[in-house]
């Protein structure tokens, strides 16, 4: 029986211009067009078994262009016993319904991969990028990376492998693990497949199909997949204008259509991740006794990352100055083992507000949007002077962007800060507790004398020198600390919460420190030394469940109706050996067991050193830390709970907490956008000035 051809007159829609419906509808129509093009490419008359193979596993999801992916996936699903007549009875109606089903599954797989691989990528934004990339997975990945100024996609990473399983689950595949394995194999052979398919632009011969099938069945001897080589094939598949825009990055031009508000919030979150890394570096450079005794307050209240130097050095300079200018009376000094996690998030958010305001002031009459300012900062890795240089060249339409040297950036920053009063603009926008005092200090001769001569970055010795100078000769005291949130008459009622908030913070700090210390001791024992002492805890989330999810329990009541099994903790620790004085503290990640019930006895702590990811890479993911809006640096090997199974459950809509990537994204925004008082503010409350009132509201995250 001859096979019926399937609508050879169907057009292949252009995703960049197809009208009618939203991006999702347009993409689905485009994908159906890709299936028609794939059928035209395959010898379905000679090998009718290819038609049911398309309906069985011919996803347009994969490492090549959508049509090539359908072709390769369909050929890979040819059964060993398929004869020439197999599939010949597939009629047009059945095929049409099957193609619509495959198109829906392919679209769900594409979106599932994108939202599971990239942090801060809501579904609608993922669809927007996929439409701009005309349904091409790696092209969409390329556009997101170009937008975020990163270049680190690796299909062999734990995050990417999890995203493959999420894609399979989102598509409703009955065996997600098998499909993910098949996709990895397809990625590993993509160059060979591309070479074979590019030999002819017309219909493949039966021998070419057989050759491709044998290639797909070959066992791979090398698990290493060169993703960089695969990404080199992407730009020619993009529309020319979009490919040029992605290659030449302009902060003033978006990549495709976008929801401005959502895109701004997403890129703002990406920038906060970069800024968080700067704070971790700054904490490592501060002496332990001063950090735990004094600077834990000033770093979260006034240690913003704008100033004359690079972001890390600016945090240090502003932190040390604020403590000297607004000293806390000795009788109110507190020795803390942990940096206030919610106050630190707020400091990072306020730093960005200051940076954005400074760039908009620099742009003058151009009316720079917040989104454009954030793009500049992402390209400049959060460095304000570099961002100004990038913006200036974009405004002047310079085609060849030149990065300034440290000395040029220093002079540029100095001139612009004076001319435009940028430090005042940034301090006001960032709600700095001394918006008048900080600009005066940063522009003073004394501050200039403290700056390094050879670079824009403080060394450890430079930090000690600044501390010594400001401790020995403090600036004229500018008064009592003024970092209190605005007080209102209604706040009088909240003063009763003060003892509870204080008690809660001390309990959390004691618990996290004890857990981190135990995990660190186990790490030292397993690795045969050296001994470490904890420098400071710089991030903690006590709400992490095992792979079965949280349990309904009263153990955490009234904080939560759920029992969470683990805590994720970041801390800095220094070796106790004689050479420790010349070494900076090491950043550690620990996953610690929360409870000592009978059901928890088999659980184990884990602990390992981690590094702050380079600013041009995508961070590994954790469902529970993102759900709580807490920034934790996790190990890239995926050896922790929350890195895989929870995302896979969410993709299949079977998670107990949420089945929406938007809820994770929005939870993070609630934390990072909050301008309310936080738990740690109670430690810095000025009793002498306002003993009868408390902060207007308090959030523990």
UniProtKB/TrEMBL annotation:
- Pfam families in alphabetical order: DUF3615, PIR2-like_helical
Which residue numbers delimit the PIR2-like helical domain? 30-145, 273-389
Annotated segments matching region Disordered: 1-22
**Xref: InterPro entries:** DUF3615 (IPR022059), PIR2-like_helical (IPR046527)
The DUF3615 domain covers 516-635
Q: What is this protein called?
A: Uncharacterized protein
Please name the taxonomic classification of the source.
Answer: Eukaryota, Viridiplantae, Streptophyta, Embryophyta, Tracheophyta
């Amino acid at each position: 029986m001859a096979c019926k051809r399937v609508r050879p007159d169907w057009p292949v829609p252009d995703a960049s211009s197809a009208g009618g419906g939203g991006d999702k509808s347009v993409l689905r129509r485009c994908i159906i067009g890709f299936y028609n093009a794939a059928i035209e490419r395959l010898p379905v008359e000679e090998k009718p078994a290819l038609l049911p193979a398309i309906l069985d596993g011919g996803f347009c999801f994969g490492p090549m262009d959508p049509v090539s992916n359908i072709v390769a996936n369909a050929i890979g699903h040819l059964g060993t016993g398929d004869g020439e007549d197999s599939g010949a009875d597939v009629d047009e109606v059945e095929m049409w319904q099957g193609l619509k089903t495959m198109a829906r599954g392919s679209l769900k797989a594409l979106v599932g991969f994108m939202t599971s691989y990239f942090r801060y990528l809501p579904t609608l934004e993922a669809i927007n990028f996929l439409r701009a990339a005309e349904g091409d997975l790696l092209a969409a990945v390329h556009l997101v990376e170009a937008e975020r100024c990163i270049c680190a996609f690796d299909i062999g990473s734990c995050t990417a492998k999890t995203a493959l399983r999420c894609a399979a689950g989102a598509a409703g595949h009955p065996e997600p693990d098998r499909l993910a394995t098949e996709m990895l194999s397809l990625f590993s052979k993509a160059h060979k497949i591309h070479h074979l398919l590019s030999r002819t632009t017309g219909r493949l011969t039966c021998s070419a199909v057989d050759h491709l099938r044998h290639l797909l069945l070959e066992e791979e001897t090398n698990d290493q997949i060169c993703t960089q080589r695969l990404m080199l094939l992407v730009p020619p598949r993009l529309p020319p204008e979009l490919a040029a825009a992605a290659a030449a990055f302009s902060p003033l031009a978006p990549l495709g259509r976008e929801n401005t508000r959502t895109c701004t919030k997403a890129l703002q979150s990406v920038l906060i991740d970069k800024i968080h890394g700067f704070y971790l570096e700054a904490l490592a450079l501060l002496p332990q006794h001063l950090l735990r005794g004094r600077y834990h307050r000033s770093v979260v209240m006034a240690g913003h990352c704008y100033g004359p130097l690079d972001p890390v050095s600016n945090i240090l300079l502003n932190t040390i100055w604020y403590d000297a200018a607004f000293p806390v009376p000795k009788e109110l000094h507190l020795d803390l083992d942990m940096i206030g996690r919610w106050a630190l998030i707020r400091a990072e958010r306020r730093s960005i507000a200051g940076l954005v305001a400074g760039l908009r002031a620099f742009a003058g009459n151009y009316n720079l949007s917040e989104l454009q300012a954030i793009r500049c900062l992402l390209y400049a890795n959060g460095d304000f002077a570099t961002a100004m240089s990038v913006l200036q060249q974009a405004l002047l339409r310079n085609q060849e962007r030149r990065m300034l040297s440290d000395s040029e950036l220093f002079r540029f920053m100095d001139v612009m800060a004076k001319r435009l009063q940028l430090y005042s603009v940034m301090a006001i926008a960032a709600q700095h507790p001394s918006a008048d005092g900080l600009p005066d200090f940063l522009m003073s001769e004394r501050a200039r004398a403290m700056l390094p001569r050879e670079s824009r970055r403080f060394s450890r010795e430079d930090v000690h020198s600044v501390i010594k100078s400001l401790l020995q000769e403090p600036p004229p005291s500018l008064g009592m600390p003024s970092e209190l949130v605005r007080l209102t008459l209604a706040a009088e009622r909240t003063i009763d919460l003060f003892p509870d908030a204080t008690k809660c913070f001390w309990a959390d700090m004691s618990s996290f420190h004890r857990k981190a210390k135990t995990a660190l001791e186990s790490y030292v024992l397993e690795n045969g030394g050296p001994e470490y002492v904890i420098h400071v805890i710089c991030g903690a989330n006590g709400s992490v469940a095992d792979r079965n999810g949280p349990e309904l329990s009263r153990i955490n009541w009234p904080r939560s109706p759920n029992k969470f099994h683990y805590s994720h903790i970041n801390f800095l620790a220094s070796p106790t050996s004689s050479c420790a004085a010349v070494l900076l503290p090491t950043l550690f990640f620990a996953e610690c067991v929360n409870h000592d019930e009978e059901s928890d006895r088999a659980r184990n702590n884990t602990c390992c050193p981690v590094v702050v990811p380079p600013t041009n890479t995508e961070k590994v993911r954790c469902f529970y830390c993102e759900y709580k809006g807490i920034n934790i640096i996790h190990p890239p090997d995926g050896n922790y709970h929350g890195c895989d199974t929870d995302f896979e459950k969410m993709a299949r809509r079977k998670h107990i907490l949420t089945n929406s990537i938007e809820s994770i994204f929005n939870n993070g925004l609630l934390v990072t956008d909050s301008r309310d008082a936080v738990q740690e503010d109670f430690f810095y409350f000025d009793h002498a000035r306002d003993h009868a009132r408390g902060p207007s509201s308090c959030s523990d995250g």
